[in-house]
Amino acid sequence: MSVTIHKQAVVDPKAELGENCEVGPFCTIGPNVKIGDRTKLVSHVVVDGHTTIGSDCSIFPFATIGVQSQDQKYVPGTVTYCEIGSNNVFREFVSIHSATAEESKTVVGNHNAFLAHAHVAHNSVVGDHVVLSHSATVGGHVQVGDYANLGGLSAIHQYCTVGEVAMVAGCCAVRQDILPYTIAEGTPNARMRVVNRVGMQRAGYSENQIRDVRRAFRTLFVNDMIFAEAIEKVRQDLGHLDYIRKMLTAADESKRGLAIPDEKTWEINAGD
Fold it and tell me: SS3 for 116?
């Protein structure tokens, strides 16, 4: 096994480093850290707490992973976890915090890109192929689905859910849930506007599937129906499709309510 540790790095002897890991100057790795094969810490990186990082990750200067939650309910000495998958990129000053309650976790999946200054708070779960652009901030207990894209300077309120293949525009505040496959934007509160067609294409959805989602979106939000009636119509017409069921399930299980579109959405979708 070949591990490269710069002489000016501080690595606790109890830490576990995989094959061909690289630890650059001024990095600090705590005793309860496990890092997978070929992961590289460029310099000035701190990995602490009970943290696991997968293979083939790149971690840039001044990133901090697995450090203590900022949640003021955290009790010193509580054992919590931070689990990071493989093939992730963490750019400068990214912070991923450990969880708060005993034995709970903050989880990040695989193939994600966290741009400079992005933040993931305690007990959040980030899926796979997610992008957090510059200074995007995810509050505690947030769920971010696969292939989601959070724009620069966006902020996701605690306990919110951003569905898979959803996109949040830059500088937006998300205070309620964003359904899968939609784009949310607007101030002071982000609202769902249109279907994320480009995002769905990149995630491998067919034109027929995109058409189905657009039809569901229009039924839900661009009509004069009561929302409960619109939900039932979508369930009746398209509920046999698994990707439409994901939208319906997200709506049914929403705890903070949905970021329901306003009248601007009607105008945007008029020619759809």
Answer: coil
CA atoms within 13 A on the CB side of 67: 15
- Asked if 215 contacts 202 with a C-beta cutoff of 8 angstroms, the reply is no
Written as six digits, the tokens of 76 are: 């010193």
Q: Quickly tell me which residue has 């990750």 as its tokens.
A: 57
- 183: tokens are 């784009």
Q: What pTM was computed for the model?
A: 0.95
Residue matched to tokens 């996701």: 156
Contact 110, 85 (CB under 8 A): yes
Six-digit token string for 239: 């509920």
Q: From 26, 94, 83, 29, select the one nearest 59 (Cα to Cα).
A: 94
Rounded CA separation 119/139 (Å): 8
Q: For 25-43, how does the pLDDT look when each residue is reduced to its tens digit (9 = 90+)? A: 999 999 999 999 999 999 9
CA distances from residue 265 to 79, 163, 181, 239 in whole angstroms, order as listed: 46, 19, 15, 23
Domains contained in the chain, CATH given: 4-141 (2.160.10.10), 201-268 (1.20.1180.10)
Which tokens hold the place of 184?
Answer: 């949310």
